[in-house]
Design brief:
This protein has about 150 residues and is α+β, with helices and mostly antiparallel strands. The protein has five helices and four strands, in the order H-H-E-H-H-E-E-H-E. It has a single domain, classed as Reverse transcriptase/Diguanylate cyclase domain (Alpha-Beta Plaits). Strands 2-3-1-4 form a four-stranded antiparallel beta sheet, sandwiched between helices. Helix 3 packs antiparallel against helix 4 and helix 4 crosses helix 5.
Length: about 150
């Protein structure tokens, strides 16, 4: 009996470990490592889920203006700090049922099934104003938006 009990415990632990590793892999596959936002894969997955449910969706695409210039002059650490700052502000200005994604480099997206384009544009414009006001670097930054 002891051998069966040990075998069962070992098997249960192995299954738990495999499930944890699977969750970690899924999280890594759909999450941007720098910002913690969803990544391009997470964006595609979320958009597919929205379309499958036939929900209305407002998409905002966001680009950090002058980030390459900032990286060239101040280094990639400064650029990464600004990317983190932008991602933090995007999280702050999003509503509960909205999701933000870093598509790569200086490109972000927001998916909303609850906001109109006007509502999202107003919040992103306010986000841009606050970012510019609180910009503590010598490099002027701005965000560019487009909606679909």
């Amino acid at each position: 009996m002891d051998t069966d009990s040990n075998y069962t415990e070992t098997l249960e632990k192995t299954v738990r470990d495999l499930l944890e590793r699977q969750e970690d892999l899924i999280r890594t596959a759909f999450t941007d490592q720098l910002t913690g936002l969803g990544n391009r894969g997470g964006f595609a997955r979320s958009l597919e889920e929205i379309w499958e449910q036939e929900l209305p969706v407002t998409m905002a695409f966001i680009d950090i203006d002058n980030l390459k210039h900032c990286n060239d002059i101040f280094g990639h650490d400064a650029g990464n700090r600004y990317i983190l700052q932008v991602s933090l502000y995007l999280k702050l200005y999003m509503k509960v049922d909205e999701a933000a994604f870093r598509l790569g480099g200086d490109e972000f997206a927001i998916l909303s099934t609850i906001a109109t384009e006007d509502d999202l544009a107003k919040r992103l414009e306010h986000c841009r104003e606050v970012l510019l006001k609180n910009n503590d670097s010598e490099m002027p930054h701005s965000l560019l938006f487009c909606f679909h």
